[in-house]
Amino acid sequence: MVLALTWQKLVTALAFAVMLIVGIFAIIDGSISAEDIWARRNQIVTILMILLGLLGIPQVFGVVHKLTFAKFWMFPLLDGEWTAQLCSNWPRIRKTYESAKAGGPPFDAMIDPLSEADEAERHVEADVTIRSSLFLVSMTLRPKNSNRVSRTRFIRPLWRSPDLPELSYVFEQEDLDPVARTDEPEHFGAGVIKYHTDRDEIAGKYWNDRREDAGLNTAGTIRMTRVPR
Questions:
Q1: What per-residue string of b and e applies to 162-176 under the rule 16 or more CB within 10 Å gives b?
Q2: Within 13 Å and on the Cβ side, how many CA atoms surround 132?
Q3: What domains are there in the chain, each with its CATH number?
Q4: Which of 75, 127, 128, 134 could, after both became Cys, cross-link 55 (CB 3.0–4.6 A)?
Q5: What are the pLDDT digits (tens) for 133-173?
Q6: Of 140, 130, 134, nearest to 1 (Cα)?
Q7: CB 195 within 8 A of CB 166
Q8: Is 173 helix (H, G, I), strand (E, B) or coil?
């Protein structure tokens, strides 16, 4: 989550933390001078390091995030369970592939419509879990009624007001079941999603390299709604 901060905000946050620690020492000692601050420099650094370590724990970070109103100046806390609706272009890719085979039915991906069954195949529901701390944001996606799981390997939060809070990520998907020749048991992908604060919803686009050697890699959209606690 710290990657969401600009250098100005990061320096300000560190300065505030140091001042808070110095203020606590001043309350304990009754007063504190510049010489006292210098004498306690090692203690101040030690306390700051312990504090940063604790903020690496998601539960601790969540509490501090609320107490410091970080959703207004850092990044919204997206931790929790979400329900995702994915819409893929796979049926159109598949029909193009089948058309290219000898004796396959003709299909023009640019203009030919999809059948009702193909349109239904485009949509997949999944369960998503998001966890974050000061130094890490992770997202796990599990499509319903399958043994597939996607885990992020890297997430970069970005928020430049008045733009919407945004997450850019790289993920790895694994499928524990046997897959068709048009698929792979493991593949990588990426996505860019934005958090719509007015309706507490995450939406964006994703793409992957699944069978990119055969031109069968896919892309689509993803929309997530928070599961009420």
A1: eebbbbebebebebe
A2: 23
A3: 2-54 (no CATH), 80-226 (2.40.128)
A4: 134
A5: 999 999 999 999 999 999 999 999 999 888 999 999 999 99
A6: 134
A7: yes
A8: strand
